[in-house]
# Entry
Amino acid sequence: MTSRLSGAILSDAIAFIDGNQDNAQAADAIGWRGVHHTDAASTRQRLRQLATGAAGLSRTSGPRPDVNV
# Structure
């Protein structure tokens, strides 16, 4: 899912994946979607949640269920 306005990608449509929690939170601070990578299954699940706009799961500070997909 990509949000576009006048050909530019909106910052909230950017998912930044990093193994360092501080970096993922920094991405959130500038309006991106920070995803703290701990393992492939949780990262895939987190990206699916972001793509579907699951309520309350738009930032790294929100719940991150460890679900194997």
